[in-house]
Amino acid sequence: MCCLVVGAGPVGLVLANECARFGLSYRLVEKLTEQSTWSKALMITSRTMFILENIGLHEEILSRGTVVEGMQGMFNQREIGALTMNIVRDPTVRYPFPIVLPQPDIEDAFEHVLNQRGGHIERGCEVVKIDVLNDYAEVALKSGEVIRAKYVVGCDGAHSVVRHCQPWTFQGHPVNILWAQCDGLVKDQNVPTTRAAFFLGKTG
């Protein structure tokens, strides 16, 4: 087998789609048995959309996502500034607006295209060990299966098992910032749903 892709998030799904598009032999394994429901990331930039168009993954994003028409800043519940995205007048910019789509929906869109290309995600397949040999790598799964692949690509997030199975160092240090994320529905009709809003108070 040419390539084993570990992790079926957006990065792993894009790579699997590219393998399928070019007719490469590959497998896409994911340790989770079901798709995550957490947003994790929302914003898709103009440049990313251009890349997704080149590889045939843009149409479902356009049909499912929300175009960000502008942004506004609030301080102590009063608007202090606003920006409208139609300031981009360059006709060569194909996607002048950022697009918002929660990560589970992005993964679902990429998986749908992958299925159309004859591929699929092998869920419940957890990698526990990787041995790099001369011409290939041997990957042991928790199930006991051993996979041989010419390339193993770790798309399994910040705590990558692929990386930890190798003697690679991870440069840098943690940033001590307290933050929280909430997925919810805003019922206030006065809050625009196509504009990004930043709310600041006296304490930050």
SSE blueprint and pairings:
Elements: E1 3-6, H1 10-21, E2 26-30, E3 43-44, H2 46-54, H3 59-64, E4 66-67, E5 70-75, E6 78-84, E7 99-100, H4 103-116, E8 122-123, E9 127-132, E10 137-141, E11 146-149, E12 151-154, H5 161-164, E13 195-200
Parallel strand pairs: 1-2, 1-12, 2-8, 5-13
Antiparallel strand pairs: 3-7, 4-7, 5-6, 9-10, 10-11
Helix pairs in contact: 1-4
Question: How many discrete domains?
Answer: 1
Low-confidence stretches: none
How many β strands by DSSP? 13
Strand content: 25-35%
Strand numbers in spatial order across the main sheet = 8-2-1-12
Q: What is Rg?
A: 21 Å
Ends apart, CA distance between termini: 52 Å
Largest sheet: 4 strands, parallel
Question: In one word, what is the shape?
Answer: globular
